[in-house]
Amino acid sequence: MTDLRAPFEPFACAPGLRLEAHERVSKLQVEAINARLDRLELLIERLERRLWLAVYGIVAVILTEALQGLLQAAP
What we know:
With 75 residues, the chain is an all-alpha fold. It has one helix at 14-73. The longest helix is centred in the middle third of the chain and has 60 residues, at 14-73.
């Protein structure tokens, strides 16, 4: 049996165009959100490094004070 339908060329209809436009906008939004997340992750990593530097600095000051106290106590 042969196919009786004539081979029609696809045509652009309003709902189809709206759907394609919506898909493009959604894709752009997802890409923008991913770019923002990447920037946020980078900022969080930098903040974490700074936080650890501050913690190590505070620990160093405390240990220095303790060492100075020990040196002053023992003549």
